Amino acid sequence: MHITGKLLAVLLAILLETNLQGQSPALYHEPFRPQIHFSPKEKWINDPNGLVFFGGTYHLFFQYYPHDIVWGPMHWGHATSKDRLHWQQQPIALYPDSLGYIFSGCVVVDSNNTSGLGRDGKIPLVAVFTQHDPAGEKNGSNRFQNQSLAYSPDSGVTWIKYQGNPVLKNPGITDFRDPNVFWYLPAKKWVMSLATKDRITFYSSTDLKDWKKESEFGQDAGAHGGVWECPNLFPIAGPGGKLYWALLVSTNPGGPNGGSGTQYFIGEFDGHSFHPSDPKSTTKWLDYGPDDYAGITWDNPHGRRIFIGWMSNWLYANQVPTKTWRNAMTLPRALALRRTEGSLWLVSEPIGNLDHLRKTAIDRSNIRVKASPELSAGYTLHTEGKPYRLHLAMTGDSSFSIVLSNSRGEQVVVGYDKDNHRYYIDRSHSGVTDFNTAFATRPSFAPRIGAYKKVLLTLVVDVSSLELFADGGLTVMSAIFFPEHPFTDLRIVSPRGTTIDNLSYWELRSIW
Q1: φ and ψ at 357, to 5 degrees?
Q2: CA separation (Å) from 459 to 84, 138, 150, 164, 465?
Q3: Are strands 333-340 and 454-462 parallel, antiparallel or unpaired?
Q4: Where are the beta strands (DSSP E) in 407-497?
Q5: What pLDDT, in 10s, does the model give residues 382-424?
Q6: In 3D, which of 474, 94, 142 has the Cα closest to residue 286?
Q7: 237-263 pLDDT, tens digit each
Q8: Is the pLDDT of residue 136 over 50?
Q9: In a 3-state reduction of DSSP, which class is residue 47?
Q10: Residue 501 belongs to what H/E stretch?
Q11: 454-462 and 325-326: which strand pairing?
Q12: Which of 26, 113, 219, 361 would you call most buried, defined as having the most Cβ atoms within 10 angstroms of its Cβ?
C-alpha cells in the first residue's frame, strides 16, 4: 500500500489527537462537558451504585442506558479510579434480563465467602441490586421490584448473575428497591437498608441469599413529599470520638428546593433497629441545592466516609441541553459530624486530593469590597472559563454576592443574604434555561447553620456546575447551568460593602 505525504500527515494528526485512554480529546470537550467531574463517554446516567474499594482500586457503578440520552432500560455502567478524581470507564457490568431492568444497589467485599460464591480461595465481590420488571408494572402487579445478586470472581472485571435470583422477593409493595448492604461485625451478619415506599426497611442475612426482616424506620420522621430511595446506613465518629450512625435517604419529589433531594438522620443502630438522636427536629438535608440526588458512600479504608451523588434533578434531567451524553456526578466529598445549635450535623467538604488538580494559584488578604448595588461592580477575577476552586473568609456582618459571568451577559449569582440568614444560588440568567419551566424560575435557598462571626465559603466551579460548601460544609448547595459561552469572570460584590479577610483561588486541571 502506497501512502502519500498528505495521507501520512492526516494519519499522524489522528494519532496525535488520541489521548492516553485511546479516545479523541473532543470526546470530553463537548459543550457543557464537565472537566473535573465524572460523566459517561456517551448516553444517559443517573444514580451512583456499588461504591466499593478493592485491591487498591475504587469502583463506581452507575445507572446507565447505553442507547439514548434519556432514561431507558437500566444497566449498570462501571468506572474505576485510583484517586476518585481520574476515572476510566469500563465495559458495562450488568445487563437487563428476564427478571427486569438493573436498578440501584450496592457491592460488598465478601471477605469470608459467606455467600459461597468465591472460588479457588479468591474473595468475591457481590452486587446486591433491584430488578425492575416493566411487564409486571404495566400489568398492574405490586410485586414488580425484587432484589437479586451477581458476583465477580476477578475483582470486578466480569460479573455472573446468581442462578437463584431473586433472593428477596417483594411482599406486595410497589416501591421496593435500592438495597444497601454492609457487614455488621457485632452480630456477624449482613444488614440491608431497603427503600419501601416512604420509609426504610432493614433486613439481615448470614449469607447474602436468605433475608429476614428486622424493622422499619421513617413513618414519623423526615420529609415525606415523595417516594424514599437510595438509603445508605453507616457508622461515623462524632465529637469526642463517640460512634454514631448516619442514614442517608433520598426523596423525590420533596427536596428543599423542589424535585429531588437527599435528607439524613443521625442516631444509633443496634443491629436490628435505627433510633434517631433527634426524631422531632427539622428535616436535615445533605445538600440544599437543586442538583444532588441518590448519593451514597464509599467505606473509606483510610478513615473518612466519602460521598458522591448524581448531579441533576428528576424535574428536568431528561431535558438538559447536552447532545451525546447526559448528566454527571458530584465531586467526591468527605463527610464528618459536627455539633452546633444543640444538634449533630453531617458536614461535607471536597476530598483533600482535589488540590492535586491545582494548576495556578492566587492568594490575597484584606480586600475591601466597596458598597454597591450593581452586580458589575466589586472585586474581579478573570477565570478564562476554566474549572477552579475559590475559598473565601469574610466578615459575616454584610450580604454579598459572587457573580459568574461571560461577555454575553449570562450569569449565575451565588451569595449570602445576611438579613435572612441564608445562602442562595440564582441561575435565572445562566444561559440556556428554556428546556424546562422548573429549571430557573426562582433562586435556590439554604439556611445558614450556626451563628459564626465569619463566613467561610468554598466554591468549586466547573464548566456547567458549581458546588458551594459554606461554614466548613455545614451548608452545601450544588447546581448545574448551561451558558452558551463559558463564564470567564468572577466578581464579588456587596450592597453595603464588606471585607474579604482571605481569598484563595486555584485553577484546576481537567481530569480527562
Answers
A1: -90, 0
A2: 19, 45, 39, 48, 10
A3: unpaired
A4: 411-417, 422-429, 444-447, 454-462, 465-470, 475-480, 489-493
A5: 998 999 999 999 987 899 999 999 999 999 999 999 999 999 9
A6: 474
A7: 999 999 999 999 999 999 999 999 999
A8: yes
A9: strand
A10: strand 498-508
A11: unpaired
A12: 113
C-alpha–C-alpha distance, residues 203 and 351, integer Å: 32
* pLDDT score for 19: 40
Q: Residue 203: phi, psi to the nearest 5?
A: -125, 160
Paired with 491 in beta bridges are: 380, 403
Q: Are 227 and 261 in contact, with CB atoms under 8 Å apart?
A: no
Query: How far apart are the C-alpha atoms of 378 and 401, rounded to whole Å?
Result: 9
Instruction: Give phi and psi for 129, each to the nearest 5.
Output: -150, 160
Cα separation of 504 and 512, whole Å? 24
- Tell me the CA end-to-end span of the chain in Å, nearest whole number: 35
- Joined together, the cell numbers standing for residue 225 give 413529599
Check residue 494 and report its DSSP letter.
Answer: B
Q: Residue 287 and residue 71: Cα distance in Å, rounded?
A: 24
CA–CA separation, 345 vs 473, rounded Å? Answer: 10
- How far apart are alpha carbons 174 and 256 in whole angstroms? 25
pTM here is 0.93
Question: What is the C-alpha to C-alpha distance for residues 229 and 224, in angstroms, rounded to an integer?
Answer: 11
Q: How confident is the model at residue 362 (pLDDT cuts 50, 70, 90)?
A: very high
Distance CA 247, CA 235 (A): 9
- For residue 279, what pLDDT is reported? 67
CA dist 327 and 288 (Å) reads 19
Report how far residue 140's alpha carbon sits from residue 138's, in angstroms, rounded to the nearest whole number.
5
- Cis? peptide before 96, omega within 30° of 0: no
pLDDT of residue 173: 95
How far is residue 64's CA from residue 101's CA, in Å, rounded to a whole number? 11
Return the residue matching grid coordinates 420522621.
221
More confident residue, 234 or 21: 234
Active site residues: 47
Rounded CA separation 38/26 (Å)? 16
191 has pLDDT over 90 = yes
3-state SS class at 233: strand
pLDDT for the residue 206: 98
Q: State how far the Cα of 323 lies from the Cα of 310, in Å rounded to an integer.
A: 19
The three-class DSSP label of residue 445 is: strand
The C-alpha cell 468572577 sits at 490
Buried b / exposed e along 107-130 (16+ C-beta atoms within 10 A): bbbbeeebbebbeeeebbbbbbbb
**370-386 residue pLDDT tens:** 998 888 788 999 998 99
Query: What is the DSSP annotation of 183-207?
Result: EEGGGTEEEEEEEETTEEEEEEESS
